[in-house]
Amino acid sequence: MSPWFRALVVTGVAIGCGNSPDENSDPLQEGEDTNAEDTSVDDTNVGDTSLDTEETAVDTEDTAVETGDTAVNCDEAVCEFPGDPDNCTSNGVMCCWAYEECCTVCCP
Amino acid sequence: MTQREQAGRTWAFRAAVEVEVQGVFHALAANSRGAPQALRALTERAAQDEGRHRVECAELAESLGVLVPELPVARAGLLGPPTLSTDRRALFTAVALGCITESISAALLGEMLEHAQGLARNVVHGVLRDEVDHARIGWGWLAWQAQNSDVSWLGAHVPAMIAAALPREQVDSGVDLREFGILSGDRARTIPQEVIQDVLRPGFAQFNILF
Prior knowledge:
heterodimer; A: alpha+beta; two-stranded antiparallel ribbon; two-stranded antiparallel sheet; 3 helices; 4 strands; 22% helix; 9% strand; disordered C terminus; B: Ferritin; 6 helices
């Protein structure tokens, strides 16, 4: 079983606890706007799934996620293929599943 | 029956299932007062997502030569024993549908995505993207409720929830329909078991829900 499932549970729990990255936003819409440099993600041949990533729109304050005793700043994470834990790019941060969504939770 | 027809029938079945799920998410959204805003927003959008999935599944079925009748939006209520309070039935519904059904569904779709081609791949991709959030609704609802109440009572219901969530599709053995977004019967059986062991048990254990 892919490790992204663990993130599925943890990110869901974060939403329920009011700890989602930006509780007042549409998570998916926000994800579509999430940018990171040079991370065109489109190995799916699906037209609307590439990430146009000219600038880093991830706001550190909005995306800091606290799990247990650990808090991380998600602006360090760049997911070339969200869902693939091997693409984690900074300590304590993993790329969460959901294609356009990047970094919402600490690694377990 | 040709492989395309078999695949089309499966997608027509999936379209009907999406209608059922849409109705349940409608009911859940109607009972989301007091939930964190992000959770309410996800739940409200989920019903719309399922309506869109129904259309996409039907279009795919029809592209494979199987006509899908127009299906009315199901007006399902909350799941769970009627003896439970409304709040508990809402939690029951979120767990059964989100934590269990949608988590399993996401895992199945993830495997489908690796093999599907053409329009089937597009549909699988779109549905999977939403199902991830729908699964999160369940875990989020559970976490929200667990902040103020004991949720361990759900453990007695989880086996039945799982049984209800297991794939009901019938695929002939020896027929490879993966390019159409349909897994072999063997994988359709083993993936949910992996989800149960690797996701559901540890996930529920965090909330003292044992089964």
